Structures are given as C-alpha cells and as structure tokens.
Known about the structure:
The chain has 527 residues and is α+β, with helices and mostly antiparallel strands. It contains 16 helices and 12 strands. The chain has helices spanning 4-15, 18-21, 77-92, 124-140, 158-167, 174-200, 259-271, 318-325, 347-362, 370-386, 403-425, 429-442, 448-458, 463-480, 485-508, 513-525; strands spanning 24-34, 58-60, 66-70, 99-100, 150-155, 205-207, 220-221, 228-230, 306-309, 329-335, 393-396, 399-402. The longest helix is centred in the middle third of the chain and has 27 residues, at 174-200. The two termini are 40 Å apart.
Amino acid sequence: MTSHWQTQLERLAAGQPTLLTEIRRGVEKESLRITPEGTLAQTPHPPGLGSALTHGSITTDYSEALLEFITPVSSGIGETLETLADIHSFVYRQLGKERLWALSMPCIVSGDAGIPVARYGSSNVAQMKTIYRLGLGHRYGRMMQAIAGIHYNFSPPEAFWEAAWQDDGAPGSRQDYITERYLGLIRNFHRWSWLLIYLFGASPAVCASFLRGRQGHGLELMDPEGNTLYRPHGTSLRMGGLGYNSDAQRGLQVCYNDLDSYLKTLKDAIFTAHPAYAQFPSGAGGDYQQLNDSLLQIENEFYSTIRPKRVAASGETALTALRRGGIEYIEVRCLDVNPFAPLGLDGETIRFLDAFLLHCLVEDSPPCSPEEQAVLDENLAMVVNRGREPGLTLANGSDRRPLDELAGERLAGVARTAALLDTAHGDGGYRAAVAAQAAKVDDPAKTPSARMLAEMVEDGLPFYRFGLRYSERWARHFRERALDETALAALETESERSLGAQRALEAADSQDFSSYLKAYYDQYAAL
C-alpha cells in the first residue's frame, strides 16, 4: 500500500524537481594514522594540520591517532567527494612516512597503553574533550577508541519541508512538523538498518592483536599463524559486540516516538550514577579521569546507528540545541570504511543512502515499543554476525522470513524513491545505485565483507597485511593526486587560523574547569 507521504513526495517532486536536487549532505570520515609497518602511530597530531580543536575540516576523534575529516554541507555529491579527496591529499602532505589505515577495525595494536588519547590543548573546552575520552577508555577500554567509521549527515532542503508542511495543511509549527517527520525516519531506519549492514559492512575480520587477552568473543581463527580472527558469514563486526557497544547501556530504553521522551531519557542517564563507574575519579581533588560517574558522561556516549542532530552554538550541549530548535538533520553512523574505495565510500554509496533515507522518511512509521526494539536489535546482531549465511532468516512481525526476500521487498521501495531522484536530476544514477545493491542480495560474494575475506584467503593475507595493501595503495593515490592550488591555499589558511583560534580560546578562559563543567551540566538540568 502506498503511504500518504510517498504519494505526497511524488506529487511535490513532479511540480518542484529542485526539492530533490537540493538535498543537503555532509561526510565525516575517520582514519587511523599508522606506521609503514602497520602499527598504530604514537606521534602527536601533525602540526601542519592545525589545531584538532578548532580546525573546520580536520580534527581527531577518540585517539590522537584517529583523524577525522569533515566536509561542509553541500547539495552536490561530486562536490562533497572532491572536497573529501582534497582533504586527504592535503593530509598526506603532512604525514611524512605515516599512512592512513584503509579499514574500520584497527591495525596492529599493543593493548590499551598503546592507544594515545586525543589531546586538544589547555582550554576548558579542550580539557573536557580529553577527559571525556579518558572516561570512555576507563569504561569500555581504549581499544574501542581505535575503531574508525564514516558518518553521513542528511537533510532535505528547507523548500521541501515548507512544501510538505503546507501540503499537509500546515499543522502546528513547521519545526514541530519537521521534527516529527525526522523521528519517523529514525524509527524506520532502526527497522531496516540491517540492510545497510549487509550491503556495506566491511569488517568481517580483525587483527588478533585487537582481541589479545579477551575471552568469549566467539570468532574463529582464519590463518594457521593465528594472526586473524573472523566470522565466516560476518558483515560488520564493528557494529556488534566488538565495537561501540556497552553492557551498561543495554538497559537504556531510548525512545524515538517523540522528542521529549528522547531528551528525557538521555538527560536522566547523564544524571543517574552508575556504581561500576564510581571507581574512576571524576573531580575529587582536581583529579578528572571521567566527567562524571553517571551512566553517560554526555549524550554522545550513547551509541546509536543514527542520531537526531541540530547545529549547536558554542558551548551549547547537543540536547539543549535539540530542545531549542528541534531536529535539523540526521547523522547515519553505521557505515564501515570501504577498503575498496580511495575515500572509504563513493558516489554510488551516497546515492543509495539518499534514496534509502528518503524511503525511510516517506514510509508509514508507527510508534516503536520496547518489544519491537528488542526484535530489531536481534535482527541487527544476526546480520552483523551471520548476514551472508545461506538461508538466514530475520524476525518479521510475528514470524521469520529469509533475509533475501525481505531485502528484495525493501529495495523495491527504495527503487521507487530512486526513480523520483533520477527524474529530478535527469539521469539514472540513483536507480543504478539501487540495482548495484540488489546484485549483492542476489550474490553475497559481491558484498565488501565477502570480497575482503575472499581476497585474504586467495592471496594468503592476514588481516593486517590486507589492510596494509590497501593503505599503501591509497597512500600512493593521494600522494600522486594533484591538489588544486586554491584548495591547498584554503586548507593551509584554515590550519593557521585554527592554531590562532586555539590560542585565543586558551587566553580567554575566565573560570576554573570545575566551574566550567558545572555550567555545562546546568544546561542538562534545565532541559
């Protein structure tokens, strides 16, 4: 049955094609810095890259060695990819002999002590960022801070929201309408995100050094030397028990049925003490090994495959920004770095994501219950660990159905949205992207996870050798790639500007850190 919003999209797109050509997107791509031997770099953030605290395009995430590249918001896929390529080319001019690791799961690591925590300077905001990361290390181990991924930010243009709101009779405020529609997208995303894990998962194996001393992981040895552990039909181990998951958070029932419930649940978790974390200092005697001893230090500690977002003002919490203005865009967080693409993703992936997310937006999205969420979590775990297993079935309502059947039905809906996008753009790129994913359902050997394992077996490569092969390939690619003089000058200028901005922040601090932190948490209390 065609949903009301699917019909609305078709009607609006027919009259105003630019509603679908002006989709706004941005990419945040993480990459570990490694040595030529494939071990984690122990060097500080390269000074030529400016300040990781204030640079607009190049920062670090959890570890000092985990670079993060950020593209500006753009409505052009080619522009987004070109900007990301320019950032890579610029970074390689500053890396010396180091390279960027081409996989999500890390290179050779030597335990928690060998994973340096990111540092941002002496300002209050910088201290908070580092202490937060120290807290993550104490709570979950630093190994998790060496895992990389790709985040995809997505929002239809303002003109789309205005047209849709008016078409629906202008109910309530336009921002409340937008927020409710985004929440519907998020609920559907949770229902169907297993499909993205199957199609784009690229972490079916890990280096044995990542799991040294860890029991109960359930992985199999892939090579006689014991260098690689894997799941034969796995897709994205990063999104399972080896990645950003927490036993403490499993009881956290985050509801996406309305914004108030979402904000309240995360606020309560930020103010609810978790006894297991009381052992780590959180300010007594000036010793901060974490920001607090609550279930969550801040909202970002809640790990999810997708987040509702709004651009926050300086010093504003993410939850306060959402309360102030509602949802502005969504951030997809379940994409592995694709080793077969120089940038870790490509235009085909972006086109599919656009069509998939629009499909999630325009399909009916009933409220989600804790019981349904438990089933969705089970489906996701099944695809993470066994996604390419012949005959695999997933829960579907009150029964179970084969993954390939469910995938085919979902892809048919995505293809309908892709056709509208192609009509608006005047080409066939979106339908071609959906067809390429359908081919992976027909033949699991075409998935990135299967291609990785096949190449490792055929060429006798342990995980780290496979990773080095592609890391070296893309290092040569970006070192040889010509960087436009205008782009080079802009990145050099931004690096210099960011260093000055960091110094200015440090000079402007007028309160001690404990007072700064209290003022920050007062925002949560006021929600």
